[in-house]
């Protein structure tokens, strides 16, 4: 069943509602409840303090490199109330989205220039991944200036001492973990915090459609941490999630109806001057790749040429789609990011969606539907990232390209909910409240 969109205009922007049944809204709420239940059950089996539950705490949330505000969405999905202290992001569109939906007390563009904003309970940061990404052929790792945001995050944790913190980055960061550990030690966080590294992907753990493998650094303050084997707890909790998580809705449930205003075709074709005798490099590359593919598969793939042109794909993108589909034996369901060159195209079969990026163009092919070929819109990408469009406000003037960039930079909401739930469960909130009172009393006396 495909959900339909209606639009309700508000002062801040546009509110999207799924009608007549909010299929994905119920789906997202159920998964949030399920994640919370499984983690708390595993904590009970591990013998954690009964008064340890995060439901009993008053949460003050803060974040840097906030993106879409996935941390705030995750808190709501877990049914936890929180106040948003501050957020920062270099993107103007991200700041507008965060301000329209979560209204933090402080919202800044540059985290390097952020001033002291007050005390917090939890902190999150998805620091830039380009310096460590394997897809970036020019990555500079720690020589990249953007890695200074990681130092800012560690300094914020060291000075403000939240009960827990969650840091996120690509799996390529694992190669540089000795330097990460050295930076954590240099800030004095080794003695203050317990740090656990958990690789998580919504496809592998939560059986979602979208792939997004990431490393999550879970940090819990030692003086308020639960006295138990936390590594063993996280390992068993993730195992329980992987085994018990119910299957998601069909991929078609994430697609919006064609009448929706945000699903209009977006053509990115650029005018190319036709010079006599000029032949792009990709033409020869495609010819070489076709030599190793079965001829009958090549003939079937040529049927995708006309629909690809209707979607606004360039000849290079259309050719890459045909080649990758033929190389994989012409499956019935197929998704590919055609923004990459042939041979590097990330693909998914049987409902698997390749990792979303800011500039990616995801094409979906399904023989069982009348419209066999479609271009995944920005709003649909947001839903694949776990964003409930019926619960968010899209600011006025937000274009398709702006929303696509937001989706490519976002942290998956359900995975973020799982990471935050694990971190909060490892905190003994009775100790934390007692420590906060003692600090307040000392401040009053002074």
From TrEMBL:
Transmembrane segments: 410-429
InterPro entries (alphabetical): C5-MTase, C5_MeTfrase, SAM-dependent_MTases_sf
Keywords for the protein's UniProt record, in alphabetical order: Membrane, Methyltransferase, S-adenosyl-L-methionine, Transferase, Transmembrane, Transmembrane helix
GO molecular-function terms, A-Z: methyltransferase activity
An annotated GO BP: methylation
A Pfam family recorded for this sequence: DNA_methylase
Protein name: Modification methylase DsaV (M.DsaV) (Cytosine-specific methyltransferase DsaV)
